[in-house]
Give the backbone structure.
Amino acid sequence: MECVVQGIIETQHVEALEILLQGLCGVHRERLRIHEICLKSGPNLGIVSSEVRLLCDIEQPEPTWTVRHVGGSMRGAGAEQISVLIRTVVESKASKNVLRLFYALGYKLDHELLKVGFAFHFHRGAQITVTVSSVNKMLKLHATDDAVPVTPGIQLVEVTAPATSENYTEVVAAVSSFCEYLAPLLHLSKPGISTGVVPTAAAAAASLMSDGGGTTL
Amino acid sequence: MPIKWVLHWQPNAGTTASGQIVNEVTQCVEGMNGVKDGRWKATLTFYKPMLRDQALLVEFPRDFLGISLPEQPNKYYFIIRGQRLVLEADSTILTIMDKLQSYKSRVSLNFEGFQYQLGDFQLRVGKVSPTHSETLRGIVMEVEYLPISSMEKSRQMMEDFLEIWQDAVSKRSLPGHFMHIEPNFADFGLGDQYTSQHTAVQYAIVVAQVIATVQAGQAVRN
């Protein structure tokens, strides 16, 4: 399982967000360059249709592949009251011919994306990962060198933390409290519930840029 | 990692593999001063697609199989032999396949037995039987040469060892012999340096032989 929230930020404020994250996490950012291939089962395969994502980390000298399955999210009155989405996620690292295998099994390409940006991994009540990336689409099949932004001028921010059925309430609390620190720059909510950019972003970014993140927001 | 050859028992025409042959082979290893070094087990599973229309079965691979190996307990291997495709993944891939609900297990075979240390060689003799059944379907033997990981550099050493081995086994006048079929690893995109993917491919070849032998035996009896 993982806890996740998402938000968006204007590209002009990303540098300020990075300064803030650097100050909050105390770790260095990692560059991110992920080629994400979304596959769907062919029309006749499976009792119900299924979807799987192949993530190729092309930031590494030797690209690495991960198979990722995102399952259903937690439902019910309790789940609706919390501001963080809890969903099942299973990942498996795989060798480089994984796309060929899924094609051979009858899966078809649905869409592909290139996410370029950076990530912070740190521990703050939970093992939290923050990614800030520009989401790009390819004009030609697999042409990652030839990608254009899906939403120019806007970047995606995602905060995730692994959780189990035993500890998710603590993880949700840790993620929620971390998100509050970012509130002046962006608002984070459950995926699919977009709340847009925040009006205080420009002023907060200007303040961060002028003193390098020393001010407590 | 050390190179390994996986051999299968090829029974003489009209005979089948039996527990008695496994015992004799085991005694043979012990007679060569092999030191028993615990149990081992590998499991191979054939998968079939879950289809809404069974008439479309021909459009999907018939020889899609998965294998778990004791040498890499946290990994799982998928092979589609007809397409010369081998994949290594974390064993969590099994949970993903389960959630996808697109393929399910058709039949699983266990390869299990004892392993032995014999100088620089490690030998594993194993019975092949369907899971949840004691029926012996075949016999396999792994010969691993610990100091070398290059297929080419170890070839002479392996051939010499097998010659000595076949000599020792032949003294017992068993109704068959161990056979080594070397796959063309390059077809699977594998190089000279031995990996567990090489082992997975060898098992895919061996299991095909074991099944062919069982089927041939049944044809003779019928």
About this structure: Chain B has one domain: 3-220. Residues 50 and 102 of chain B are 5 Å apart (CA to CA). The mean pLDDT of chain B is 94.
